[in-house]
Amino acid sequence: MGKIGNKNDRGVQINMENIVFYFELHQPFRLRPLRMQDNATAMDIFWEEKNREIFKRISENAYIPATQTLMESGIKSTFSMSGTFIEQAMKYSPKTLDIIEDYVKSGMCELMGETYFHSLASIWDEEEFEYQVREQTKTMKNIFNYSPVSFRNTELIYNNRIAEMAKNMGFRNIIAEGTDEISKNFSPNYRYVAPSGINLYLRNYSMSDNISFRFSNTVWNEYPLTADKYVKWIQNSPGDIMNLYMDYETFGEHQRKETGIFDFIRYLSKYIEDYGIKTIKIDEIAKEHNAKGMVSIEKTISWADTRRDLSAWLGNAMQNEAFNRLKLCSASDNKEIWRYMQTSDLIYYMSMGNPEDFTVHEYFNPYRSPYLAFIYYMFALDNTCSSHNERIE
Amino acid sequence: MKVAVIGWELPPAFSGGLGIHTSNIFSIIGKIIPTDIYLPDMGYSFSGYPFNIRTVQVTRGIAGGSYSHVTNFTEAVDDYNNKVVENFKPDGVSVIHCHDWITFSAGIEIKEKFGIPLVVTFHSTEYDRSAYFNPQGDIMKREKEGAEKADAIITVSNFTKRILVEKYNIDPDKITAVYNGVKSSAYTQGQNYKRERQILYFGRITSQKGPKFFMEMADKILQYEKNVKFVMAGTGDMLDEMKGYALDHGFSEKILFPGFVDFHKAIEYYKRSEVFVIPAISEPFGITVLESMVSGTPVIMSKTTGVGEALNNALKSEYWDTDVMSSYAVSIINHKSLMDTLSLYGKYEGMSFTWEKSAIKTIEVYRSIWKI
Lengths: 393, 372
Known about the structure:
The complex is a heterodimer.
Chain A: E1 18-25, H1 48-73, E2 77-81, H2 83-92, H3 94-105, E3 109-111, H4 126-144, E4 150-151, H5 160-168, E5 173-177, H6 180-185, E6 191-193, E7 199-203, H7 205-212, H8 227-235, E8 241-247, E9 251-252, E10 255-256, H9 261-274, E11 278-279, H10 285-288, E12 291-294, H11 311-314, H12 317-328, H13 335-340, H14 344-348, H15 358-364, H16 370-384
Parallel strand pairs in A: 1-2, 1-8, 1-11, 2-3, 4-5, 5-7, 6-12, 9-10
Antiparallel strand pairs in A: 6-7
Chain B: E1 3-6, H1 17-29, E2 35-40, E3 52-56, H2 73-87, E4 95-99, H3 104-114, E5 118-122, H4 126-129, H5 137-149, E6 152-155, H6 158-168, E7 175-177, H7 185-188, E8 198-202, H8 211-224, E9 229-233, H9 239-248, E10 255-259, H10 263-272, E11 275-278, H11 287-294, E12 299-302, E13 315-317, H12 322-334, H13 336-350, H14 355-369
Parallel strand pairs in B: 1-2, 1-4, 2-3, 4-5, 5-6, 6-7, 8-9, 8-11, 9-10, 11-12, 12-13
């Protein structure tokens, strides 16, 4: 495979040829801490002040400087932006949208399709799923004049059926987590196809996490992670492509500017050039590399938590009660609000988490308590949804 | 090497949480380090404890030699402290350990006389007991002095630690929070009861514990949920006022006031209820919170209840915020998943508070100051 043994003009051995960066850009509309006594109107259920505060902070820390840095460094990448992200960017930080637009116009940034509401629709309602994907596609067209051909589902929730739905909607590529189980037989460093024929790319999670989780971890035995070292690891990895998929907040928010994360990106672009490696967008992979085989994934996987399944959203009784109640609302009066209530984060906040994932859950939970997340969610439904979930004994 | 404890009460002769604590913690410490416990002689005999009990005769401020016959509390306390100093056996004692202001003066005098390091434990402060309403100057003076003279201080929570730092200006570095434990087997074994849509208050009915906020919460709940009842278990100076509140607000049929309840009855109340509420204004620890959790009963607690700082699986609110408390309570009784999750995780978390841990942490405090 590949061009093992080839050398570039500086005499460096070429192994890995391409890096594929994919970034998730998403913000939910968080729910206000409601009390039973509040007679909230539909719009009151959203925590406007908190959502604004978080979005503005992350824009300043991450979205704006990270996009600037990628552009200046000539690094290509692929963005997946939820509809709720776009809405908040328009409301709270138009500058973020402007700079992303510049990046897209430069040709270096591909935009992906996903569900507008970053929802779990793919696992329970095909029609609703298609509606939400179309809404997001329309938004990409309206704002960026871009028609996505690659698809990523909410938090990389994936199985053969979801890939097939995406294929049927006209997408050419889809991405998924390279879980331990899958990676045993299929290295994430190649192009694959799903049984439905759509191109399938798997995240190299350990190389991705080296940046997103470990970059500033001083007790990590590889600390400090320099761009030089990292590119050497990539260069020495067997395969055609290095799929580095991460949350875009990694750059400047999770890993603060002070950690040197932006310098890391700048130097990365310099070193990959030295080593003859190029960054490419997801839709460019198929032109460069042959498929290594078919990968069939029946069981639903995701990139969340240690378990890499649906348990981050549907792992406990509260989440299931809330999700079931949400489904019952579907025939109710305000369909728009119901769709915002589908945003997966709102149910993720109710996760009790495994002990090993506790810190991650606490970090993202605006209420710092899965119980409060449940209580506020149910009060929000009480105020916006006519169905009632009577307590079952 | 020996620990000399200056106590006030010990089962079977006791009137409150101090006795429970003394019994539980020194039943473990006594097996590790030789321990003498000084107590007022109230005519009880003690047996089966792994430590020496040295009783001293209190003759002033007391009629008939029992806790219920104390006629002048301050006088009895002073007499007790003087007698402890007179009868103190210093041989081999490496640390003196006093419990609450009622034993501080003896501890200070012994420390000064024999040069033995002093540890004092605060189970509560005058600020807690008075709920910040007219705290008694004399007691505060004794508390401050005990804290200043002690070589190390134990508080039952960081909440109480902060009170000592802020109100008495004590160096935080010499204060260690040591949480109480709970004997969970008494709650997890034994009979099970079917839970009812019942919300429980259990504790002294006195302003420190915030019973009025429980009543306000009940009133608010009943505006949304008719099918729910309440129990206010315990006695205290505000019991009649609370009964009056229920009458005035038209829900006396919805609430039961059983008065004093014994240990076994208390377990039954915990296990029959779906929610336990403790709206205390200032509670240094709150051992009932752990009792409820190990009984599998979800807890709603005030943020001014000390143990809450160490708990993830209890719901917390400001003690006065009865809108929030009623919202939490209605959510629990109406959503089985919330009830079950709080119950399961609460039980597991509550059971992690053991007296063994408290005893070991207490010994670590001794180790930090004794000279052996």
